[in-house]
C-alpha cells in the first residue's frame, strides 16, 4: 500500500491522535492552534479519570528543558503543580550514604516531582477542546489508498473517520493502535518486581527530594510531591517471567526485603517500611519490562509516541519524560512543516524518525544499564558508586542535557 498523496489537494489534513495522556495532549494542544489541519484526539477515559492517580512521577530535567523551549506556558503550568527535583541521594537501608548527586552537576536545569493526577490535569487542560473524552475506539485499519480509518463510539453515537492523513498512536504501553495496525511489539520481562504507593506525608520532614535506599539488591525510593504526599516505590529481584506471588505482597516480606538483617534501619527506611506495611492493601504491583521500540511502520501514515512506541524500564524515571520529549518534537515538527506549507506526511515522519530513533535507543539502554543494582546477586555499593564515576556521569549528562531542539527535526525540510 502506498501513502495517499495528501499534498495535492487543499483540504485540511486530517490528523487523529488516539490517547490524551502525556504525549497525546502535548501534540493535540500544539496542532489545535495550527492552520491547514483538522485535529481530533480520542481518549478512552473521562476527562477527570486518572487511572494511575495513586502515583508520583519524577520527570527528568531533559523533558523540562525541551518543554520550556517548545511551550513555555505549558512548562510553567507543570512547574506550578510540582516541586523541583534537584538531587539524587543513594544510601543503604541502615542509613549509610553512598552518594549525593546534585542534578546541576549533570543537567542544565532541575527536573520536577509531581503527582500523576496533577500532570494529567495540567496537560488535559492545556489540550482543551481538541480532546474527545469517554470514547471507545474500534475498527482501526488502512484504506485502499493507504490512509487510515477508525470508528469510535461516544454517548451512544458511532462515528467513522475515513481518509486520515496521519494517525498518531499515543495510547500507552498496551497500545491498541499499534496492535491493530502493526502487531503487538515484543515485550521482555527483565526479572524485577516493582511496587508503588502514594500516602499523605506523615514523615515529619524525613522525606523530601529524590532518594534511594538499598538492602542487597532490594531497593526503596521515595520523594515528596505536592500537595503534601510522599510517593514511594520498591523493587526486588524476581525470576524473569515469574508472576509476583501473594507471599511477596505481604508486610512480612516487605520487612524482610528492606530492613537490614543485622542492625537497625535508618530513620527514613524505618518510616517507609512501617508506612508500606500499614498500607499493604493499597500497594500497586507490577514487573519491570521493555517493549521493542518503533515509531513508524514502513511508509504508513502512522506515528507511535510515548509508551506506545517504547515501553522502557522505569529505573531512571524516563517513561513520562520521553513521552514529553516525543510530544514536543512531534508537535514542533508538524507545526513547523505546516507553517512552511508542507503537506508531505511521509517526509515529516522520516524527519521525526531521524530526530528520535537514536536518542530513544540511548535512553532505553542507559535505563537498563542503571538497573544493574536491582538484579539478583547485585552489589548495591559497587553498582551505586559506579553511577557517580565519570563514564556513567557522562551518560547522565548526555541524557539530561543533549535533548536537541524541539524544532531540530525541521532542518532540511
Ligand atoms: C506507577 C507508575 C509510575 C511511573 N513513574 C514514572 C516516573 O517517575 N517518571 C517517568 O518519567 N515515568 C514514569 N512512569 C511511566 C509513565 O507514566 C509513562 O511512561 C507515561 O505515562 C507514558 O506516556 P504516554 O503519553 O505514552 O501514555 P499514557 O500517559 O499512558 O497515556 C495513554 C493514554 O491513552 C489512553 N488510551 C489507552 N488506550 C486507548 C484507546 N484504545 N482508546 C483511546 N484512548 C486510549 C489512556 O487512557 C491514556 O490517557 C510511571 C508509570 C507507572 C505506571
Question: What is the fold's blueprint, element by element?
Answer:
Blueprint: E1 13-18, H1 22-31, E2 37-42, E3 56-59, H2 61-70, H3 72-80, E4 83-85, E5 87-92, E6 97-102, E7 111-115, H4 116-127, E8 131-132, E9 136-142, E10 148-154, E11 157-164, E12 166-169, H5 176-182, E13 187-200, E14 211-215, E15 218-225, E16 229-237, H6 251-258, H7 267-278, E17 284-291, E18 302-304, H8 319-339, H9 345-369, H10 380-386, H11 390-401
Parallel strand pairs: 1-2, 1-12, 2-8, 5-14, 12-18
Antiparallel strand pairs: 3-7, 4-7, 5-6, 9-10, 10-11, 13-16, 13-17, 14-15, 15-16
Helix pairs in contact: 1-4, 1-8, 2-3, 2-8, 6-7, 8-9
The structure holds flavin-adenine dinucleotide (FAD).
Flavin-adenine dinucleotide binds at residues 18-24, 42-45, 52, 55, 57-59, 137, 170-172, 176, 196, 284, 306-308, 314, 317-321, 323.
Keywords: Monooxygenase, Oxidoreductase
Protein name: Salicylate hydroxylase
Organism: Noviherbaspirillum suwonense
Protein architecture, described:
With 413 residues, this protein is an alpha/beta fold. It has a single domain (11-187, 289-405), classed as FAD/NAD(P)-binding domain (3-Layer(bba) Sandwich). The protein is built from eleven helices and 18 strands. Helix 1 (22-31) packs parallel to helix 8 (319-339) and helix 2 crosses helix 3 (72-80). It starts with 12 loop residues before the first strand and ends in a 12-residue tail after the last helix. InterPro entries: FAD-dep_Monooxygenase_BioMet, FAD/NAD-bd_sf. Keywords: Monooxygenase, Oxidoreductase.
Amino acid at each position: 500500500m502506498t501513502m495517499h498523496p495528501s499534498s495535492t489537494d487543499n483540504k485540511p489534513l486530517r490528523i487523529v491522535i488516539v490517547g490524551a495522556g502525556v504525549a497525546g495532549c502535548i501534540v493535540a494542544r500544539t496542532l489545535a492552534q495550527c492552520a491547514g489541519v483538522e485535529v481530533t484526539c480520542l481518549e478512552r477515559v473521562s476527562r477527570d479519570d486518572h487511572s494511575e492517580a495513586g502515583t508520583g512521577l519524577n520527570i527528568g530535567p531533559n523533558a523540562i528543558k525541551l518543554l520550556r523551549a517548545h511551550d513555555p506556558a505549558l512548562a510553567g503550568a507543570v512547574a506550578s503543580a510540582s516541586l523541583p527535583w534537584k538531587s539524587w541521594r543513594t544510601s543503604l537501608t541502615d542509613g549509610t550514604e553512598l552518594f549525593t548527586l546534585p542534578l546541576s552537576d549533570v543537567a542544565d536545569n532541575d527536573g520536577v516531582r509531581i503527582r500523576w493526577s496533577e500532570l494529567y490535569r495540567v496537560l488535559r487542560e492545556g489540550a482543551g477542546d481538541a480532546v474527545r473524552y469517554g470514547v471507545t475506539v474500534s475498527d482501526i485499519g488502512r484504506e485502499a489508498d493507504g490512509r487510515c480509518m477508525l470508528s469510535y463510539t461516544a454517548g451512544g453515537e458511532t462515528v467513522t473517520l475515513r481518509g486520515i492523513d496521519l494517525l498518531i498512536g499515543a495510547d500507552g504501553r498496551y497500545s491498541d493502535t499499534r496492535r491493530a495496525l502493526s502487531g503487538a511489539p515484543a515485550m521482555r520481562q527483565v526479572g524485577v518486581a516493582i511496587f508503588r504507593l502514594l500516602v499523605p506525608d506523615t514523615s515529619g520532614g524525613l522525606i523530601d527530594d529524590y532518594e534511594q535506599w538499598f538492602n542487597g539488591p532490594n531497593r526503596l525510593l521515595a520523594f515528596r510531591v505536592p500537595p503534601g504526599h510522599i510517593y514511594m516505590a520498591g523493587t526486588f529481584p524476581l525470576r524473569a517471567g515469574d508472576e509476583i506471588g501473594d507471599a511477596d505482597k505481604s508486610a512480612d516480606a516487605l520487612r524482610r526485603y528492606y530492613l537490614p538483617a543485622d542492625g537497625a534501619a535508618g530513620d527514613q527506611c524505618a518510616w517507609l517500611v512501617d508506612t508500606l506495611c500499614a498500607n499493604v492493601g493499597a500497594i500497586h504491583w507490577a514487573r519491570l519490562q521493555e517493549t521493542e521500540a518503533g515509531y513508524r511502520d514502513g511508509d504508513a501514515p502512522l506515528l507511535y509516541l510515548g509508551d506506545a512506541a517504547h515501553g522502557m524500564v522505569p529505573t531512571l524515571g524516563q517513561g513520562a519524560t520521553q513521552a514529553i520529549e516525543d510530544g514536543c518534537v512531534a508537535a514542533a515538527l508538524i507545526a513547523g512543516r505546516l507553517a512552511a506549507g508542507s503537506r508531505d506526511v511521509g517526509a515529516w515522519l522520516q524527519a521525526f524518525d531521524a530526530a528520535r530513533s537514536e536518542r530513544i535507543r540511548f535512553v532505553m539502554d542507559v535505563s537498563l544499564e542503571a538497573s544493574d543494582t536491582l538484579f539478583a546477586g547485585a552489589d548495591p555499593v559497587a553498582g551505586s558508586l559506579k553511577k557517580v564515576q565519570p563514564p556513567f556521569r557522562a551518560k547522565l549528562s548526555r541524557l539530561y542535557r543533549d535533548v536537541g531542539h524541539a524544532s531540530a527535526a525541521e532542518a532540511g525540510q
